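Dear colleague,

Thank you for sharing your sequence with our group. We've completed the structure prediction you requested, and as agreed, I am returning the results in plain text so they can be pasted directly into your records. Please verify that the sequence below matches your submission; if there's any discrepancy, let me know and we will rerun it promptly.
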Amino acid sequence: MILEVKNLEVSYGAIQALHGISFEVEEGEIVTLIGANGAGKSTTLRTISGLIRPKSGEVRYEGVDITRAAPHKIVAMGLGHVPEGRRVFPMMTVRENLEMGAFVAPKGVVQDRMAQVFERFPRLKERQRQLAGTLSGGEQQMLAMGRALMTAPKLLLLDEPSMGLSPLLVQEIFKIIQEINARGTTVLLVEQNANMALSIAHRAYVLETGRVVLSGDAKELRENPAVRSAYLGQVSDAG
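Please find the predicted structure tokens below.
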């Protein structure tokens, strides 16, 4: 088991965002969290990566309790996070953004890892001296993913990678996610496009107002009438 989340509770002041959620991710899987806006998906990822401290509960990564570990220590353990909205450094070049992603990596591996990122994202290689803020939305998403891959993560958290992208670019990004997973990186995916997420995931959890209300095989959930009606824009045959 690479990730275990147990009875996680998170509050923003008086507002409780997560109500004791529990789930797990096996090594080698793509697991997706789906749900409406405000369901607690991004809060879950930010808590796992140490950006938010939970009120109670536990996060275990490779058997180690990381619930209250500092974010940079969590990154150094092999957990990468691509945040919602990409969050690239706009006044730094593509190359400098990637170098920032490698801040916990040994110096001797940085150039090799950058070469691997450029191989996976040829457009970033073409634009390596360009300011990140001048890239298109799709290119910024590739840069955010490439920056996280500079740490050679065992587990990659992806928060809304398709947000604001054209349908063609969404297809491209999801193909890249599958390739990253096929090369050995476990993926925990938060995605508003539930249909796309369920089409590539092995398993899925459905969140509603900070609670896990459904879980199971992603393909089976994709055919579940309640899921189809609520998240896939399709009404069941029963009406």
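Summary note from our side: The radius of gyration is 18 Å.

Kind regards,
the structure core
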